[in-house]
Amino acid sequence: MAIQIQHIGLSAIIVDAGRRGVLHQGFCQSGPMDARAFELANRLCGQTNAPTVEIMGECTLFVEQDCYLSVTGPAATLLIDNQQTDCWQRFAVNANSIVHIRPERLGTRHYVAVPSGFAVDAIVGSASTVKRENMGGLHKDGSSIRVGDTLNVKAISAGLSLNSPASLPAHLIPKYDSPALIGIVPGYQHQAFSTLTWRRLLSSEYDVTPQMDRMGVRLKGPEVKSIVSTLYSEAIAAGSVQVPPDGQPIVMMADRQTLGGYPKMGAVARCDLYRFAQCLPGDKIQFYQLDAANARATWLLQQSSIARWFGN
Fold it and tell me: Which of 26, 195, 210, 262 is deepest in the core (most CB within 10 A)?
């Protein structure tokens, strides 16, 4: 079974959960920007980590044979042969149908999943696309999916069950509110920033700037300069909030570099990182402080709610 790409607005790439355990070899983690939408797209198709398509902008697909699809992400118009349907569910698509996805906000990311996932070879343990490293993706060279490309679908695996719920209750559908309240967990370098600087960060709004991509998102707002000027380069976690000399925070995202030497105030809490990933230039965010235990508990509660709904 195959799906042909007829139109791409901004970009479309293959992602799975990313490359784990290889940062020390110089490979970035990669994977989905919005890990929650990615996970739920797969869950709706009876799996947890199959290759999906991450799209930005409008996208039109031609489905050659009967199949199931799920589409997740912020508000969007979803049409199947010009008939509107809802995202955040698994739906049947007949052979020779046209699926059109039109996001309400240009630049948000949406995820298209199929049962068993798209047939894309793994490179260094992952099918995820990384343009900077010329690795992964449909063409195996880090390039994006192109109009006219055909996405083959893996044969349905023996353990795959489509008896799982085909839709989500309202409380499991992520809310992409704006302005966004984003939790930050102080890191071990938090003492490199004065108490006044921390208060400034937590009491101020920051604008998301156009200087953003899958590597990182630069914010603009009140300066939060460090009292430390030089550091040894070290590994960078997802969501790390680095502060360069100009005092404007940079949040490191899925395709971040493996090492960095700017001081870090902390990291965006995993329970909020998916919402931050969907912010667009001009959006406003405000940080609130979480300790590591509360951040972990919130994330585990989110995960347990998903697991209970899908029966595992």
Answer: 262
Predicted confidence at residue 156, as pLDDT, reads: 66
Q: Residue 273: helix, strand or coil by DSSP?
A: helix
Determine contact, residues 218/209, Cβ cutoff 8 Å.
Answer: yes
Question: Quick one: pLDDT at residue 161?
Answer: 60
CA distance 293 to 241: 19
pTM score, whole prediction: 0.95
DSSP states of 206-242: EEEEEEE-SSEEEEESS----S------EE--TTEEE
268-279 average pLDDT score:
96
Neighbour-count burial for 115-145, b at 16+ CB within 10 Å, e otherwise:
bbbbbbeebeebbbbbbebebbbbebebebb
- Residues 6 or more apart from 34 whose CB is under 8 A from it? 73, 109, 111, 274, 277, 278
Tokens of 204: 């101020």
The amino acid present at 239, given as its one-letter code, is: G
Report, as an integer, the average pLDDT of 123-141.
95
Q: Which two tokens stand for residue 289?
A: 């402080």
What is the distance of C-alpha 241 from the center of its chain?
17
Distance CA 138, CA 15 (A): 10
Rg (alpha carbons) of the chain, rounded to whole number: 20
In single-letter form, the type of residue at position 290 comes to L
DSSP 27-42: ------SSHHHHHHHH
- Bridge partner list, 289: 184
- Report how far apart the first and last C-alpha atoms of the chain are (Å, whole number): 29
